[in-house]
């Protein structure tokens, strides 16, 4: 038991838990994205999908709670690691140059992480804890389109869309570092696989970012051309 | 007469017989015996780890911030052993024979034979520790021929053999430290050996961070403090290498043997300017493919590429057609000096010769050369900003190793009972010239496989412990050290410590370097006291003795070099023959080669201290050669 | 032939650990570009000494890039601007006339400053003492060639064993983490058959000692690898991560 306890306290143990929870969050994101893409099939399909999900409740609450725990663990362990890292260098350098080794994604990690926390809160308020049949769901034809309408209306606002897209790019950068890091932290490293893993994480990040971002872009284009 | 305590019996049985006869310490009693080890190079780390494993109570001191930094780490080439893995005819006898001959018949046969005997155990031990020696594709250990040897008996770890062996010994040491079995003191410098009633009983050290001076008593003291090449200021040794522990032991009565035997390595990067702080060695292996030459015309300042083939003098190939560029270190060095003295030297200072790889690159291709010497070429480029792939390297000899050191008997004990000396700090195994890849072998042999037996023999004959570090001998020594420190700090003169060190170094290099003559040596004997005298009046050592003060550390070491240098010269002056690294111009063959005088000089010259500036007393240990018949070396 | 430059040096001066310390500015002239960086500091120190000031304390020993004693942050880079080069092997031709050069000690909780540019790296020794060895007593080793070792593993082990323990990895890491150092020793020993018996205890004990010494966590930024004068690969860290996990979850 003390063996496991010390694992959770150790630098490597903590990192590996952050990595595992990160991987779980990625799986969630992929699932979420698949759902989002139903948006392209129109209001009926999209709302039906949303309803199906909420019909799974209360059982689905367990899943959602699990997700919340994963997210909180990912976040708080990272925060504790960051705090430890700050303590490990009490006096900072006057001049510090970064090597070219450090990719942009890596450098941006503290920022993309923070943006994503803010985004998650905003996003939940925006699309989850909101009246899905109120004014916000009413489109130009005066009819309520449920969640589809809420999303559509939100994205017709360029500022709203812009913020969303920024968040999705943050996600992309975060994932690019995160997926490679997962491999490194779990010890999957070899001269043959490491470059491959780098490619996979880059492309996963790009595909996820662009797919998520495509919806507000699609809405904006449609809205402006109508 | 000195008793070297060489065991009776035939050469090949001496060590075995000795081991079976020596006295043993009861396992339960070992913990009661305290042993101090000074220095954590190959010999010191190996000895400390092994003695601790045996159960002795061990205290270790080193001058650096970590035992892993000792200068053994810089050895590049390899370590010899008589494994005969290549099946090319090597044997313990052959390794023994080559080492005695290579030492120009000035080493003690029995010691060298023992060294060859334990050489194989060293390889086994190091491999078990995880030392990553080079391996063939089949996974077995690889060997190469080194320094002109006729068999391939050198084990190597890329160009970092010393580093890997030291890290192995260091890991063994740290294993014991981790268990709490060894008490390790880093950043401590030994400033005195305490002798009570004729027996070495402990040391006095200065903590380099706090300046605190403390005494440590023990049942035996082991010095493994390396060589004294830095007496010459510019050498390939690390900056902290010094003679202080040896010299202060000498001042307490330990004899100093053959100090004039110094080794000058032929392939080093030449001096660039006055600011130069040390010289860098380029592995001897470069001479396997590089050709040494100078222009035929003196003071030729053309670029080497513009000098046509027929205007180049490949002087080693010309003078030694059968060995060519692979002649032993002393010959290669001396001949470089001759051509430079005659004005044929190249480079900005005229003190360099070319080592040219153009032929080898044409013959074998750049890739092969890169695979063999890539690291060395990069290192050369980094330092000189010139690529040996394009232009020939420039090299010049530099002080590299010292064969002389504190006198020890067969048990590695000095003439002071209880004081043992290992590795480069002692004198016994290399005679007047050390062969390549033999230094690592000796350091580890002493530490792993010899001292653990011989120190037991000594300790078993003496009651353990109860030596009080508060004895007046310790307190007096502490006070003397503190007084000396205060005196140095108060001089506040106009020259830095390095100014004096450079001056001494230049004098020793010019008058007692690659070749020596009576006139030059006598001149040095006049000048050294003058430098020493000025040092005591005009050195400037800033700061205090209560914290880290690197100038103060250096001042102590240089003041010892200034005293030691004189003894080195006395030794060189008295040895009127040439042998190995000691070339007396008065003693040479008609062809200008070193001429030994076995009738008059086949002995170890052990010097007894008589006071600063006083002529030391010479005590001789005659050398007899039963197994290896005396003969003149020839490399024609 | 001779090329000389002049520089403005901003050097961290700190009398003892407990002091706050500050930067001092020095002008150095006539610096021959074929000098090494440490020789340049020697020249400055000689000048300071004769002017009655205390010279700058800095660690150094072999001055040929293998002992691992030297090191400082030069203009924000561990061991200065040249790749795969220790400070002692860095030469002044890498600087331009009138450059300002900022010189700072390694900064990490695990490496407290002793004086000026000198830091205490005793933590590295303690990490090694926690398990960076194979417990073979002198005399008990078997015949060396009894156990052939796969050439590839021997080479990988060597690459890791080339670590000189200088601490540049810690100094360069944004988190002052010692994972490259620790993992290099673990890789060196665990890749070899001789090291297998103690492999699990080794990784656990060394990692836990590393944590205890106050080094930061690895966030996979690989600044360590870029700063390492011996080009030790971060794949060693991956190997350590894996072996630590396996050791902790094995029954």
Describe the overall structure.
- The complex is a heterotrimer of chains A (226), B (636) and C (251).
- Chain A is mostly helical.
- Chain A has a single domain, classed as 3 helical TM bundles of succinate and fumarate reductases (Up-down Bundle).
- Helix content of chain A is 77%, strand content 0%.
- Chain A starts with a helix and ends with a helix.
- Chain B has 636 residues and is of the alpha+beta class.
- Helices cover 37% and strands 14% of the residues of chain B.
- In chain B, the strands form five sheets. Chain B has a five-stranded parallel beta sheet with strand order 5-2-1-9-17.
- In chain B, strand 6 and strand 7 form a beta hairpin.
- The two termini of chain B are 39 Å apart.
- By secondary structure, chain C is an alpha+beta fold.
- Chain C has two domains: 101 residues, Ubiquitin-like (UB roll), CATH 3.10.20.30; 128 residues, Alpha-helical ferredoxin (Fumarate Reductase Iron-sulfur Protein, Chain B, domain 2, Orthogonal Bundle).
- Chain C is built from eight helices and seven strands.
- Chain C is elongated and about 65 Å long.
- The model of chain C has no long low-confidence stretch (mean pLDDT 96).
- Chains in contact: A-C, B-C.
- The interface between B and C is large, with 81 and 80 residues.
Q: At CATH's second level, what is the architecture of the largest domain in chain C?
A: Orthogonal Bundle
Whole-number count of domains of chain A: 1
Determine the structural class of chain A based on helices, strands and strand pairing.
Answer: mainly alpha
Given as residue ranges, the uncertain stretches of chain A (5+ residues, pLDDT < 50) are none
In whole angstroms, the N-to-C terminal distance of chain C is: 68 Å
What is the CATH C level class of the largest domain in chain C, in words? Mainly Alpha
Helical percent range of chain A?
A: over 70%
Strand content of chain C: 5-15%
CATH class call of chain A: Mainly Alpha
The appropriate CATH architecture of chain A is Up-down Bundle
- So what's the oligomer here? heterotrimer
């Amino acid at each position: 038991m003390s063996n496991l306890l010390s694992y959770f306290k150790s630098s490597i143990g903590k990192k590996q838990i952050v990595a595992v929870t990160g991987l779980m969050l990625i799986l969630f994101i992929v699932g979420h994205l698949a759902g989002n893409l139903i948006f392209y099939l129109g209001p009926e399909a999209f709302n039906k999908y949303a309803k199906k999900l909420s019909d799974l409740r209360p059982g689905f609450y367990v899943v959602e709670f699990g997700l919340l725990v994963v997210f909180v663990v990912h976040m708080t362990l990272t925060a504790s690691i960051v705090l430890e890292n700050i303590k490990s260098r009490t006096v900072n350098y006057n001049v510090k140059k970064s090597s070219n080794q450090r990719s942009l994604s890596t450098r941006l990690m503290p920022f993309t992480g923070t943006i994503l926390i803010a985004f998650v809160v905003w996003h939940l308020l925006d699309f989850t804890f909101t009246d899905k049949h109120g004014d916000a769901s009413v489109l130009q034809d005066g009819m309520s389109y449920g969640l589809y309408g809420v999303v559509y209306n939100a994205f017709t606002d360029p500022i709203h869309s812009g913020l969303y897209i920024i968040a999705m790019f943050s996600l992309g950068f975060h994932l690019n570092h995160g997926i490679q890091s997962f491999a490194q932290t779990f010890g999957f490293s070899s001269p043959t696989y490491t470059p491959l893993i780098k490619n996979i994480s880059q492309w996963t990040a790009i595909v996820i970012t662009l797919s998520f971002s495509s919806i507000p872009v699609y809405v904006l284009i449609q809205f402006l051309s109508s | 007469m000195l008793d070297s305590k060489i065991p009776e019996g035939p050469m090949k049985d001496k060590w075995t017989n000795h081991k079976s006869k020596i006295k043993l310490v009861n396992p339960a009693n070992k913990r009661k015996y305290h042993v101090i080890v000074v220095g954590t190079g190959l010999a010191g780390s190996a000895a400390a780890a092994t003695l601790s494993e045996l159960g002795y109570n061990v205290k270790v001191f080193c001058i650096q911030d970590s035992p892993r930094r000792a200068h053994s780490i810089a050895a590049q080439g390899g370590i010899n052993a008589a494994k005969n893995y290549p099946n090319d005819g090597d044997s313990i006898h052959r390794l023994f024979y080559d080492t005695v001959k290579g030492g120009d018949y000035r080493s003690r046969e029995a010691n060298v034979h023992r060294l060859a005997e334990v050489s194989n155990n060293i390889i086994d031990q190091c491999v078990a520790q995880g030392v990553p020696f080079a391996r063939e594709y089949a996974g077995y250990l690889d060997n190469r021929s080194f320094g002109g040897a006729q068999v391939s008996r050198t084990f190597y770890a890329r160009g970092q053999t010393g580093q890997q062996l030291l890290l192995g010994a260091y890991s063994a040491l740290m294993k014991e430290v981790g268990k709490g079995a060894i008490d390790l003191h880093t950043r401590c410098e030994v400033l005195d050996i305490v002798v009570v009633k004729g027996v070495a009983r402990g040391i006095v050290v200065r903590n380099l961070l706090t300046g605190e001076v403390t005494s440590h008593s023990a049942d035996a003291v082991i010095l493994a403090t390396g060589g004294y090449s830095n007496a010459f200021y510019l050498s390939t040794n690390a900056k902290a290498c010094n003679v202080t522990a040896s010299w202060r032991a000498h001042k307490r009565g330990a004899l100093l043997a053959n100090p004039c035997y110094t080794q000058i390595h032929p392939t080093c990067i030449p001096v660039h300017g006055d600011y130069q702080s040390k010289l860098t060695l380029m592995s001897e292996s470069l001479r396997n493919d590089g050709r040494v030459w100078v222009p035929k015309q003196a003071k030729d300042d053309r670029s080497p590429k513009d000098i046509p083939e027929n205007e180049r003098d490949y002087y080693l190939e010309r003078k030694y057609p059968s060995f060519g560029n692979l002649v032993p270190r002393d010959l290669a060095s001396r001949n470089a000096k001759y051509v430079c003295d005659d004005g044929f030297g190249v480079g900005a200072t005229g003190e360099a010769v070319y080592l040219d790889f153009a032929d080898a690159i044409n013959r074998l291709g750049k890739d092969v050369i890169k695979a063999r010497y890539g690291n060395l070429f990069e290192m050369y480029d980094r330092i000189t900003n010139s690529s040996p792939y394009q232009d020939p390297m420039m090299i010049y000899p530099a002080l590299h190793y010292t064969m002389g050191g504190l006198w020890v008997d067969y048990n590695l004990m000095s003439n002071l009972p209880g004081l043992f000396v290992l590795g480069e700090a002692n004198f016994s195994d290399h005679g007047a010239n050390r062969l390549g890849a033999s230094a690592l072998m000796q350091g580890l042999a002493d530490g792993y496989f010899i001292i653990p037996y011989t120190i037991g023999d000594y300790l078993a004959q003496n009651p353990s412990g109860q030596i009080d570090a508060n004895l007046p001998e310790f307190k007096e020594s502490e006070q003397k050290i503190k007084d000396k420190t205060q005196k140095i700090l108060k001089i506040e003169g106009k020259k830095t410590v390095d100014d004096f060190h450079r001056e001494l170094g230049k004098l020793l290099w010019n008058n007692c370097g690659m070749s020596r003559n009576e006139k030059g040596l006598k001149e040095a004997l006049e000048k050294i006291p003058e430098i020493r005298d000025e040092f005591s009046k005009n050195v400037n050592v800033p700061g205090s003795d209560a914290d880290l003060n690197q100038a103060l550390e250096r001042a102590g070491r240089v003041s010892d070099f200034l005293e030691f240098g004189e003894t080195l010269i006395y030794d060189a002056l008295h040895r009127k023959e040439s042998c190995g690294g000691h070339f007396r111009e008065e003693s040479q063959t008609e062809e200008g080669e070193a001429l030994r005088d076995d009738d008059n000089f086949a002995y170890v010259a052990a010097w007894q201290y008589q006071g600063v500036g006083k002529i030391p007393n010479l005590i001789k240990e005659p050398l007899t050669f039963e197994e290896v018949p005396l003969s003149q070396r020839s490399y024609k | 032939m001779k090329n000389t430059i002049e520089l403005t040096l901003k050097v961290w001066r700190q009398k003892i650990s407990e002091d706050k310390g500050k930067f001092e500015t020095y002008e150095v002239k006539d610096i021959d570009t074929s000098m090494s960086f440490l020789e340049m500091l020697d020249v400055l120190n000689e000048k300071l000494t004769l002017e009655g000031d205390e010279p700058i304390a800095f660690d150094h020993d072999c001055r040929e890039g293998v002992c691992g004693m030297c090191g400082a942050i030069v203009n924000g880079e561990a061991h200065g601007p040249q790749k795969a080069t220790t400070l002692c092997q860095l030469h002044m031709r890498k600087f331009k006339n009138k450059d300002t050069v900022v010189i700072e000690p390694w900064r990490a909780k695990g490496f407290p400053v002793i004086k000026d540019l000198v830091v205490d790296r005793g933590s590295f020794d303690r990490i090694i003492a926690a398990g960076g060895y194979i417990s073979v007593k002198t005399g008990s080793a078997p015949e060396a060639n009894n156990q052939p070792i796969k050439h590839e593993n021997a080479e990988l082990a060597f690459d890791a064993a080339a670590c000189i323990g200088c601490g540049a990895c810690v100094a360069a890491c944004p988190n002052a983490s010692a994972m490259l150092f620790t993992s290099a020793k673990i890789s060196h020993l665990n890749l070899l058959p001789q090291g297998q018996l103690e492999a699990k205890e080794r990784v656990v004990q060394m990692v836990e000692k590393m944590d205890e010494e106050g080094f930061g966590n690895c966030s996979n930024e690989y600044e360590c690898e870029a700063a390492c004068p011996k080009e030790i690969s971060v794949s060693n860290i991956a190997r350590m991560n894996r072996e630590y996990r396996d050791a902790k979850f094995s029954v």
